[in-house]
Amino acid sequence: MGTTQLESVPEPKYWHLKTVLTEALDSEFSVGQVLPNERDLAARFGVARATLRQALEQLELEGRLQRRRGVGTTVAPPRMGVAVDSEQHGWPGAPGDAWQPVDCTSAVPSAAVAGLLGIDRDARVFTVRRSRVTHGQPVAAELLHIPDASVPELSAIDAPSGAARARAVLRELQRLPLEGREQAVELGSAGAEDARELDRLPGSPVLVVTTRFCAEGRTAAVSVATYRADTCRLTFGASGGVEIHHEPGARAS
């Protein structure tokens, strides 16, 4: 076989620097330690600051570094184990669900949300906001979109506002017979709201898990859950469910 074009492409300078930085992290730094500033690091390794930033961004993506508000760039702890899928594969809010309801609003959906739910733009949608904390650290934020048609018996009297309203919407949703669900996982970057909830900087890498819940032959709800990419490591089990496992020393593939 002939040599492919890719085989003749030299390794990018930032990628080589990433390898050198990884060795330095393993031998010279401890978890939580703040790295020197970019100017000092660039001078130490004899590279341009633009090259250094590319290497640092890659290490952050792989979960080796964290950018913290008011602190700087620190060495990240090993990824924590957080199950994305429950074994029951039930509705959100069912027993064993680790998410905590925060708030609930009702409004006409955006074009993107209406498209996910397969509904008209003038149909009202409940949006339940939930959070997830592991070992005292925020690891994920979720927006659960539920069309009014999925919770027709919901009483405003029983669910005035806030977390109580969120729980009432979830209880009413669980009355539907769940027929199945579909999940997709993709890499994204944290927007301003997600960054604030997850204690990250805007633009930080995140894992976005979108789940479509089906009942009565239609999409009954859609969950968009945003996980910290520096905290979570995704694997796929034999059952098809998505789980996040903690393996000290493991690196993202």
Task: Please supply descriptive tags for the structure shown above.
two-stranded antiparallel sheet; disordered C terminus; alpha+beta; 253 residues; disordered N terminus; elongated; 6-stranded antiparallel beta sheet
Could you give a short description of this structure?
This protein is of the alpha+beta class. 25% of the residues lie in helices and 30% in strands. Helix 1 packs across helix 3 (49-61) and helix 2 (38-45) packs across helix 3.
Give an account of the 3D structure:
There is one protein chain. This protein is α+β, with helices and mostly antiparallel strands and 253 residues long. The protein is built from 6 helices and 10 strands; from the N terminus they run αααβββαββαβαββββ. Strands 3-4-5-8-7-6 form a 6-stranded antiparallel β-sheet. Strand 7 and strand 8 (218-228) form a beta hairpin. The protein starts with 12 loop residues before the first helix and ends in a 9-residue tail after the last strand. Mean pLDDT is 81; it is low at 1-9 and 238-253.
